[in-house]
């Protein structure tokens, strides 16, 4: 069965001084529509590089990444931008909220990216962003700036932002890192609700107690997928 997003013999090397480092080593991977996958592995194993390849932020050294059967490396620049902005929702490991925008403005930001006329009015976009903030439980903080939010609240803003354009796949790199146990449980419950609405999830985590909550668990070790 062809996956919604899949890779074939995916490799990525980086040059460090006089030597090359193989960060991703021949990964074959597939995620289906609506699937929930946890990705684990030690720090430095290649997980984040793999996610950046899937999201189209990095180009493979060899192999390919296909979305709905189309090699993203062969897409035109505008098509790649559309893929990153609409088909994939990405929550980075490092908090990346825009400091000069409020929570709701951060969530709305993806709707203004890319070329062409927006199909929705600003009012409709604001209503959608407010609905997403409500979904993640922080609608009351819609007008707060990132500097006044806790780590857990910022994670929720980034999740809402990643969902703004209704992506088919949500990729999150350590979405519960540095959060307390109760907030971690709340974020995981939120991710399950998102998955139940039909969005495929690929979640990187080091927290083994979470692994029973996903349909599949895969491990990256020395750039290989196990």
Describe the secondary structure blueprint for this structure.
Elements: E1 5-16, E2 19-31, E3 36-40, H1 47-54, E4 62-67, E5 70-71, H2 77-87, E6 88-91, H3 103-108, H4 122-135, H5 151-162, E7 169-173, H6 181-196, E8 200-204, E9 216-221, E10 224-225
Parallel strand pairs: 3-8, 3-9, 6-7, 7-8
Antiparallel strand pairs: 1-2, 1-4, 4-5, 9-10
Helix pairs in contact: 4-5
Features:
226 residues, alpha/beta, 6-stranded mixed beta sheet, 4-stranded antiparallel beta sheet, 10 strands, 30% helix, 27% strand, globular
Short note summarizing the structure:
With 226 residues, the chain is of the alpha/beta class. 30% of the residues lie in helices and 27% in strands.
Arrangement of strands in the largest sheet: 6-7-8-3-9-10
β-strand amount:
25-35%
N-end to C-end Cα span: 19 Å
- Computed structural class: alpha/beta
